[in-house]
């Protein structure tokens, strides 16, 4: 998943990319993946990237701001044609490796600016844009591009960090990080829903997830470890505590309540229901915009 905190991707790609039946690394990756799946992500049995967003062989998925490609790889494993877009060459190289490992023959990873997608109108049946709207200069322009690229009836999976989690991070992050330029936008829950509806989309579900990660990221700065090897007693104890909680009879119910109270991110599933005058219908096999 592209969910992220101020420190980077919240779900280690090695966990979320694990195919059905594969061994998942122990520790934070395994517990993070379990938490995500209980929250609605990566439903291998139903082929849903997130609940209400099924992925299949008839789908063209456009993943904008694809990051390490976790969502893109899930989609190609479930038969979709995928166009993964990001502006960072390093991330695109990682995406291509992930797609190659998934034996994706109908997938493309392209460098692109989110505010001007190099795709024709109406080509996508599924559009994924996670943890990106808070970073761009004009979220409305990005949403307008997402609307343009989606076909009638297309499903949209959108997420941004939750404002409460952002406030927590402000207390946990070291001063030198807070002094860095380029602070990102904080998008409240009402504002997020308004942005999506103003873009012409119909909101089907607006929910939150990731209390587990909110606490993990709040603890992380104090541990003095690197993100690629986050072994530390404080973090390990938190991971073990959360995993034990999820095994209790009331654990899932408590997870849902805490996810609403202090989530890592908020998620909107939306649909493009109508046709605007400027919408055109293109050959779904011809996805790129020759003028871009």
From TrEMBL:
Organism domain of life: Bacteria
Q: Does the keyword Transferase apply?
A: yes
One Gene Ontology BP term is:
methylation
Q: Where is the Methyltransferase type domain?
A: 62-149
Entry keywords, A to Z: Methyltransferase, Transferase
Q: Record keywords: Calcium included? A: no
Q: Which GO terms describe its molecular function?
A: S-adenosylmethionine-dependent methyltransferase activity
InterPro entries given for it? Answer: Methyltransf_11, SAM-dependent_MTases_sf
Q: What is this protein called?
A: Class I SAM-dependent methyltransferase
Q: Which organism is it from?
A: Cognatiluteimonas weifangensis
């Amino acid at each position: 998943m592209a969910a992220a905190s101020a420190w980077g991707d919240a779900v280690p790609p090695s966990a979320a990319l694990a195919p059905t039946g594969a061994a998942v690394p122990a520790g934070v990756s395994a517990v993070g993946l379990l938490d995500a799946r209980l929250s609605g992500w990566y439903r291998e049995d139903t082929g849903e990237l997130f609940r209400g967003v099924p992925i299949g062989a008839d789908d063209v998925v456009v993943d904008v701001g694809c990051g390490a490609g976790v969502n893109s790889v899930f989609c190609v494993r479930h038969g979709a044609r995928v166009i993964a877009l990001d502006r960072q060459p390093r991330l695109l190289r990682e995406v291509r490796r992930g797609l190659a490992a998934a034996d994706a023959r109908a997938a493309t990873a392209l460098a692109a600016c989110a505010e001007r997608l190099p795709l024709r109108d109406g080509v996508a049946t599924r559009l994924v844009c996670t943890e990106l709207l808070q970073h761009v200069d004009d979220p409305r322009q990005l949403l307008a591009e997402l609307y343009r690229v989606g076909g009638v009836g297309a499903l949209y999976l959108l997420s941004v960090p939750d404002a409460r989690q952002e406030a927590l991070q402000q207390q946990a992050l070291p001063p030198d990080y807070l002094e860095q330029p380029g602070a990102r936008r904080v998008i409240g829950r009402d504002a997020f829903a308004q942005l999506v509806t103003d873009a012409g989309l119909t909101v089907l579900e607006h929910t939150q997830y990731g209390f587990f990660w909110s606490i993990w990221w709040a603890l992380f700065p104090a541990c003095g470890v690197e993100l690629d090897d986050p072994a530390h007693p404080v973090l390990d104890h938190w991971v073990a505590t959360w995993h034990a909680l999820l095994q209790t009879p009331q654990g899932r119910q408590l997870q849902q309540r805490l996810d609403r109270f202090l989530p890592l991110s908020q998620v909107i599933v939306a649909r493009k229901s109508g046709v605007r005058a400027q919408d055109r219908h293109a050959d779904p096999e011809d996805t790129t915009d020759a003028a871009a």
